[in-house]
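Raw record, unedited: 50S ribosomal protein L24
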Amino acid sequence: MLGNKLHVKKGDNVVVLSGKDKGKKGKIVEALPKKGKVVVEGVNKVKRHTKPSQAIPQGGIIVKEAAIHSSKVMLVCPACNTPTRIKKSSLANGSMARTCKHCGEIVDKEK
C-alpha cells in the first residue's frame, strides 16, 4: 500500500498516463491518500444502479467518476502547460514548495 502522501492535490490539473482513459486531462475532484487514489473530473466513468430513495425519488442509473490510482496520473504544470514530475524545493523562509522539473516554476507552496 502507498503511504499517506500523494504527489498531487485536490484542484490540480492532471493527465492520465495509462488505462482506458489514457491521455485525458482533468482536474482532481477528490484525493484519497489512505487508499493512494484520486478522483479525476470526467475520467473513469462508471454506472451505478440506484434504488429509489428520499434523495433520488425515481432511482435509476447514475453515471459518476470512480477513483484511479495516483501513480496513473501526472501533474500538468500551470506555467509551461506540460505533464511534469515535481521536485520538492525549500524556499528562503524555510517552507517547502512543489516545483516543476521542466521549467523550474513553483507549482504551489506547502506547509
